[in-house]
Write a structure and sequence with these properties.
Elements: H1 2-6, H2 11-14, H3 18-26, H4 29-48, H5 60-74, E1 82-83, H6 100-111, H7 130-140, E2 144-148, H8 151-163, E3 167-171, E4 177-178, E5 182-183, H9 184-190, E6 194-198, H10 206-212, E7 217-223, H11 239-249, E8 252-256, H12 276-281, E9 286-290, E10 301-305, H13 307-314, H14 318-322, H15 326-337, H16 345-348, H17 350-356, H18 359-375, E11 380-388, E12 400-408, H19 414-422, E13 428-429, E14 431-433, E15 436-440, H20 446-460
Parallel strand pairs: 1-13, 3-6, 3-7, 7-8, 8-9
Antiparallel strand pairs: 2-10, 4-5, 9-10, 11-12, 12-15, 14-15
Helix pairs in contact: 3-4, 4-5, 6-15, 7-15, 18-20
Length: 462
């Protein structure tokens, strides 16, 4: 072992070998040196573990090892993943799948110059907001709308433009925390407004809001508890009550939906998510919701409501810092158009299609996945009833009936198999239950079934 360690060559020596010098010419000196250091470090560790002999450092085989390391470092970090978790809008896996129309719109917007901020009629500078504002108003009944880069930015902008230096009244039961430990009270503080909490965690009455309003009050803030549910001894005023109070006391009523849907999902057993249009009809002045959750589009924060308030937001200095980019804007416009006839969003928007897919179709795909796994030599597979979820803080108490395939591979624990699947190309992400990998068919598309089987085949024959 000591002799082998002493015979490890210096990096400068390796760089003189023709096969390695060719890598310097093909890539760069820095990349090649970094790769060589990594390969030598691996060799040193293997020798210390008495698990390796020295290779022929001048050979094409050794150069290929270095090349593989360079290519691995150059490979894209963001890669496609097969979502077999049963969570449709999985934040860690990129949230909503985009429709083909949205992807094509992004391609067109990225490939060529566009009229992003040019009025083609007058030849003068235009506004990027006009590309989707009419669509949003048509689909929600809002007087006006504006779009920013995400829903948190939408809340922050709305508060800064309307309540900076004043107070915002909110129920204690709605002071939510979203992913990444971002808390609504902190957002309110950053906006320059002062939070006035009312009610109790489980019960807030209209009188609590009424008593909290004074000359400093700018807005009542309602937050849809889209990522948790309080059940039992609870009470909260109806939106219409809050809207009536806000109008009487001359303050704004705004609601942070977090997610937000444009159509009624109750026929599919998903009735806990309020429809944006119905919220505005109830008298709420301003609604903020996401583009990349139940709407099924790209990351975006959509603000819809009263024309005069939206005008304030458009002219606020923060607007430029949180504005939506052209690719997301193109994808959002294309997604919104799928809500218009003759399109059917339940068919054409992937998130809604997965949510509403009949259980019989999910079962059939699960059985096809079982067969595909048998065909590549995986014998320990079984079909199970499963529960899927919308995810991303949407419909927290709504279970979706589903089917999943449980899989085991000899000599690999469930954790080891999960790791191997994440390292596959493309990576496959499932869940572990009772010592088995579970692959939920509600979030695996038909074209992905063969890719799942291929990943297992490679694990069997590395």
């Amino acid at each position: 072992m000591t002799i082998a360690l002493k015979n490890l060559p210096q990096i400068q020596t390796l760089l003189t070998y023709p096969a390695i010098a060719a890598l310097v010419d093909l890539f760069s000196h820095t990349e090649t040196v970094d790769a060589l250091r990594g390969v030598i470090a691996d060799l040193r560790a293997a020798i210390l573990a008495e698990d390796a002999a020295l290779p022929d450092f001048e050979s094409a085989v050794f150069a290929a090892t270095v090349l593989h390391r360079i290519e691995a470092r150059r490979a894209p970090s963001l890669v496609p993943v097969i979502n077999a978790t049963g969570i449709i809008i999985h934040t860690n896996l990129g949230r909503a799948r985009l429709a083909p129309e949205a992807l094509q719109a992004m391609h067109v917007a990225g490939e060529s110059p566009s009229n992003l901020e040019l009025d083609l009629g007058t030849g003068k500078r235009g506004s990027r907001h006009t590309h989707v504002e009419t669509l949003i108003c048509e689909l929600t009944g809002a007087q006006a709308a504006v779009v920013v880069n995400n829903c948190a930015a939408a809340v922050l902008l709305s508060l800064m433009a309307t309540a900076q230096g004043r107070t915002v009244v909110a129920s204690r039961g709605e002071l939510i925390e979203i992913g990444g430990s971002f808390r609504l009270p902190d957002v309110i503080a950053q906006s320059g407004a002062t939070l006035r909490e009312v009610g109790a965690t489980n019960k807030t009455r209209i009188s609590d809001y009424d008593e909290a309003i004074d000359d400093t009050t700018a807005a009542l803030l309602k937050s849809h508890t889209s990522n948790f549910k309080i059940i039992g001894f609870t009470a909260a005023p109806d939106r219409r009550e809050l809207a009536k109070l806000a109008k009487q006391r001359n303050v704004i009523l705004m609601e942070d939906l977090g997610s937000g849907v444009l159509i009624d999902l109750s026929p599919y057993g998903l009735g806990d998510e309020p429809v944006v249009g119905e919220i505005l009809k109830s008298g709420v002045d301003l609604v903020m919701f996401s583009g990349d959750k139940l709407l099924g589009g790209p990351q975006a924060g959509i603000i819809a409501g009263r024309r005069d308030i939206v005008a304030q937001l458009k002219s606020h200095p923060l607007m430029r810092a949180v504005r939506i980019d052209k690719l997301s804007l193109a994808a959002l416009e294309a997604t919104l158009r799928l809500y218009r006839t003759p399109h059917d969003p339940l068919r054409d928007v992937p998130v809604l299609a997965m949510l509403s897919e009949p259980i019989e179709a999910v079962e059939q795909r699960a059985r096809e996945m079982m067969q595909a796994l048998w065909d590549v030599g995986i014998t320990d597979v079984d079909l199970h009833n499963s529960t899927a979820y919308a995810g991303a803080g949407s419909l927290p108490q709504q279970d979706l009936e589903s089917y999943a395939v449980s899989v085991s591979v000899p000599h690999l624990s469930a954790d080891a198999l999960a790791t191997a699947l994440r390292k596959a190309t493309p990576p496959v992400v499932g869940r572990i239950e009772r010592g088995h990998i579970m692959l939920d068919a509600r979030t695996v598309t038909a074209p992905e079934v063969s890719l799942v089987a291929r990943a297992f085949a490679r694990i069997l024959t590395p």
